[in-house]
Amino acid sequence: MSFISGRRTGRRGSRRFTRRDLVVLGVLLGLPVLLDLAVVWGPTLASVVLSFTSWDGIGDIEWVGTRNYTDLFTNYPQFWPAARHNLLWLAFLGLVATPFGLLLAVLIDRGVRFSRFYQSTLYMPVVLSLAVVGFIAQLVFSRDQGALNAVLGDTDSPTDWLGDPDLNIWMILLAAAWRHTGYVMILYLAGLKAVDPSLKEAAAIDGASEAQTFFRVVFPTLRPVNVIVGVITVIESLRAFDIVYAVNHGRNGLELLSVLVTDNIIGEASRIGFGSAIAVVLLTVSLGFVVTYLVQELRGEKDR
Amino acid sequence: MSRRSLLRGAAIGAGAVTLPALLTACGGGPGGDGKTITLGSNASDPVPKKAFADAFTAYADQSDGRKVKVNTVDHNTFQENINRYLQGKPDDVFMWFAGNRMQFFAKKGLLHDISDNWQHYTGFSGALKDQSTGEDGKQYLTPYYYYPWAVFHRKSLFTERGYEVPTTLDEYVALARQMKKDKLDPIAFCDKDGWPAMGTFDYINMRTNGYEFHKSLMAGEEAWTDKRVREVFDTWRRLLPYCQPGANGRTWQEAATSLQKREAGMTVLGLPHPGAQFPKGEQADLDFFPFPAINPEHGQDAVEAPIDGFLLAKKSKNLKNKKTLESAKDLLKWLATGKAEDIYLKSDPNNIAVSEEADTSGYSAIQKKAVELVSGAKQISQFLDRDTRPDFSSTVMIPAIQKFISSPNDVDGLVNGIERQKKTIFASD
């Protein structure tokens, strides 16, 4: 206390940094800031600006106002399915895969038999990149040579798991959830290990049932983990890309916003202005989640 | 298509935007010893890769000290990055396609004019010259080989079951019906990669409405809502029950394999596609017939035969060196000879030479038949995605045709969607 008040009264504040300190600070702070500006903010702003232009990556950049956005919303058949699929992805991971991961974590934490075995098996897909998961999904779901149809023994009219646009998104979601569940499980397991056992004992002494103990006592203490899992789920859903790209380039029922951006910008087409407009939409959606999250976090910080 | 190649693409893209300015600032003028030609290749499959290597070695052997340094990139990646590749640091010579796809880059000033080379070329038809010419009337491409699209089948299966080659759509449908009765998939069908089904669209369109209509439709001059286009989709819908279901989940390799395994009776593809899926011993059993006639007015006039060849990249730094430019043009001159094509085709017999001076005596029966088909054609088209703008074919037509395959009944909605998007895309420029 006295130290702080001493600092406040003293006029040595300006002399606390030597010139060398300032240089070091300037470099250490300045470089990351510059990098951040160049690598994150620069491209972001460039996309926003380019989204109001028509550019094929070679010729002149021409202003077209909001035409890209009108085209996008009214005249690009892939756009709304892509937006829907992104939301579906979020809902599926958030409402199915994540709770399932939590359930598995709780079961394993209670010490079922062979829990180590389950733990490592369920975690295994997490070490694979989603693109690899996509290739595995093809081995399983392919209509003519896939394992699933072979197991079902359905040779007369085999189900086209990946080619049928009403069906394939669900198959891909299953594959994505296969990986996501393991990820969530391991995070919750770590969280559950950190819960003080005396809390559970106290609850048991007070006569709480298993379920009550979990929902009223254990789950609230998992709040930090919940936040992390929530953030991961949102990020995973919005940046979903590799798995559908590996399966069929994100077409025919597997459209996602990220794929449309790539299709328009990276591909031979090079509709950079139009692709940027899709990227800006994706950015806006992501910002929505980020801002909500930040607001809640800051509010939570105040309550604490 | 892996994430890595995609990331590589993204990195190349980012590099192309920022790097050139930096590089010109510190570059040391045109490099190269004038004798080494770098060549960007999209021939990543083993058979063509080896065939090209043979050809370039043969070139180096006969030239005094010139050599070709090949950079091979996976062909899908090559294609997706071609735009940035040509603007960034391209190789001196690169492989690409004839037609609109070439003209697009010529118009953007990314290709070297090789009209002077063309004055010395012999053995190329007028049609080939047209396909190698940009909108400004100058030549940019040195054609090397091409391959026709047709309806492929197994000779032995046809004789075994007594199938007759159909020449009209009705006969085609009747044959398909018979095959279905015989527990075969009549037509092996695939469109997972987005382009194979375009060949069927092109053929039905050219047989129904003729080559001129195909050309102006691809140039954006006709409305997709026109009843002639609807008719194409209606005819296609008539064929769909005989096509393998689930085409959007099947690659062309799988479709060609089902033909090879005698599970399917026929398939509409290009010569190298089934050719590459048939083992050596069974290649002689592969046969084809031209896509059947639909409208007697157009008969079987047009043949779809995409041309691949070589071009010079304008942005290549080495080509600023006169000597290297001379070497590169010399390489093209050599590649334009019939002899050079012979060397290539010896290792890759799934294509046919463009030059009339090429030695066709060593051709397999199917190659000879392919030559006959193409030389008898009244018109030669490239392919949907080579005859129109790349942004239109990849962002509009691929999803549209896949949608048609999975729900063929809403033709009105389909053509209206295509037409609306076509208008915005062709208007921007």
Secondary structure layout:
The complex is a heterodimer of chains A (304) and B (429).
Chain A: H1 2-9, H2 19-50, E1 53-54, E2 62-63, H3 67-74, H4 79-109, H5 115-123, H6 130-141, H7 147-152, H8 168-193, H9 197-205, H10 210-221, H11 223-238, H12 242-248, H13 257-265, H14 272-303
Antiparallel strand pairs in A: 1-2
Helix pairs in contact in A: 2-14, 4-8, 4-11, 6-8, 6-12, 8-11, 9-10, 11-14, 13-14
Chain B: H1 3-26, E1 36-41, H2 46-62, E2 67-72, H3 75-87, E3 93-97, H4 100-107, H5 115-118, H6 126-131, E4 142-146, E5 149-154, H7 155-161, H8 169-181, E6 185-188, H9 196-209, H10 211-218, H11 227-239, H12 252-260, E7 264-270, H13 272-277, E8 286-289, E9 302-304, E10 307-312, H14 322-335, H15 338-347, E11 352-353, H16 365-375, E12 379-381, H17 384-387, H18 390-406, H19 411-427
Parallel strand pairs in B: 1-2, 1-3, 6-7, 9-12
Antiparallel strand pairs in B: 3-10, 4-10, 4-11, 5-7, 5-8
